[in-house]
Amino acid sequence: MSGIFAGLLRARRALAPRANGSVLQESMFVLTVLAVAVLGPSGWILAHLDHYKTRG
To answer: Where are the transmembrane segments (predicted)?
Structure first.
């Protein structure tokens, strides 16, 4: 059991913020990718709504 906790502590230290400031850049990149992944398909459907109305 103590091996699991030791592993978690090591993982937590590995995830500590870096001093070079790349954490903010990585966070902004991830947020941008998630926003495009969520809003992209919705925008496509809304942009082609007239086509979908006439099709069905």
So the answer is: 29-47
